[in-house]
Write a structure and sequence with these properties.
alpha+beta, two-stranded antiparallel sheet
Amino acid sequence: MVKLTRLNNQTITVNPDNVLWAESSPDTTLCLLGGEKVLVRESMDELIERVIAFRRMVASEFPQSRRDVDG
């Protein structure tokens, strides 16, 4: 899960697997699988950094599953 901040300073967590797309105009808007749109304070670059950090954490937690996929 990725921790983000709504425009009203409410902290939320989002599963990056549920994000269809994100845009910055100027606020960062996420469109989730169910069609809900969420505006957050984080910039697009911050969002990308947090998703990458989340993916790295998951990959380090489950190194065996990566080897199984790679052969």
